[in-house]
Amino acid sequence: NAGVTQTPKFRVLKTGQSMTLLCAQDMNHEYMYWYRQDPGMGLRLIHYSVGEGTTAKGEVPDGYNVSRLKKQNFLLGLESAAPSQTSVYFCASSYSHRGRNTGELFFGEGSRLTVL
Amino acid sequence: QKEVEQDPGPLSVPEGAIVSLNCTYSNSAFQYFMWYRQYSRKGPELLMYTYSSGNKEDGRFTAQVDKSSKYISLFIRDSQPSDSATYLCAMRGGGGADGLTFGKGTHLIIQP
């Protein structure tokens, strides 16, 4: 049982390049989330999904796109990377209970992205 | 003012000491309160979960919520070097599927 798996774990990009981060969970969770974590800023929600085929914006969505074509996968895309997107990105998933997340998020180990 | 305030530390204490970690918040709609622990270069993991005001104990850990003061605490008794980590408070309102609001995290160091 792998839990939440993120790929790649490390990536260096040049300004203007594009890339996709992949998150996969094997716990049959309905909800999935993408956060970024920056020094002095804490965890900030980028986008989230309440089920296959649905996505919604979080606190800091600009410059990112997401897709949830399969229940177990949640993709985060950067179309034109900027240095301000240098960060550690965490994917998380959770159960749903009566249409709400339970508050227990299961996190991946993070993807460290540097944009030069 | 940020919705959730948490002192980033570092907080350094000797092994065996009682540790007190705290967060304040401004959003009265928050009803569910959590503490996550994050080891270096790892993802956060849930440590404690409480609903509304009151105390919850789990082994050496006690979580307290005071909604009237908008203040939550995590106490660690008989602290161990393995407790050295960053502790993030998190909270959410009563409904919806949107994510949690996190504090910035407190970096805790337990000195052997």
Notable characteristics:
heterodimer; A: 116 residues; mainly beta; four-stranded antiparallel sheet; 13 strands; 0% helix; 56% strand; globular; B: 112 residues; six-stranded mixed sheet; five-stranded antiparallel sheet
Please report the distance between the alpha carbons of the first and last residues of chain B: 37 Å
Give me the number of helical elements of chain A: 0
Radius of gyration of chain A: 13 Å
Strands of chain B, count: 11
Helical proportion of chain B? under 10%
What does this structure look like?
By secondary structure, chain A is mainly β. Chain A has no helices and 13 strands. In chain A, the strands form 3 sheets. In chain A, strands 2, 4, 5, 6, 9, 12 and 13 form a 7-stranded mixed β-sheet that branches. In chain A, strands 1-3-8-7 form a 4-stranded antiparallel β-sheet, with no helix packed on it. Chain A starts with a strand and ends with a strand. Chain B contains no helices and 11 strands. Chain B has strands spanning 4-5, 11-14, 19-25, 32-38, 45-51, 54-58, 61-66, 71-76, 85-92, 101-102, 106-111. In chain B, the strands form 2 sheets. In chain B, strands 2, 4, 5, 9, 10 and 11 form a 6-stranded mixed β-sheet that branches. A 5-stranded antiparallel β-sheet of chain B has the order 1-3-8-7-6, with no helix packed on it. Chain B is an all-beta fold. Chains A and B meet through strand 4, strand 5 and strand 11 of A and strand 4, strand 5 and strand 9 of B.
Helix-strand blueprint:
The complex is a heterodimer of chains A (116) and B (112).
Chain A (H helix, E strand, L loop, with lengths): L3 E4 L2 E4 L5 E7 L5 E8 L3 E10 L2 E4 L7 E3 L5 E6 L8 E8 L1 E2 L2 E2 L4 E2 L3 E5 L1
Parallel strand pairs in A: 2-13
Antiparallel strand pairs in A: 1-3, 3-8, 4-5, 4-9, 5-6, 7-8, 9-12, 9-13, 10-11
Chain B lengths: L3 E2 L5 E4 L4 E7 L6 E7 L6 E7 L2 E5 L2 E6 L4 E6 L8 E8 L8 E2 L3 E6 L1
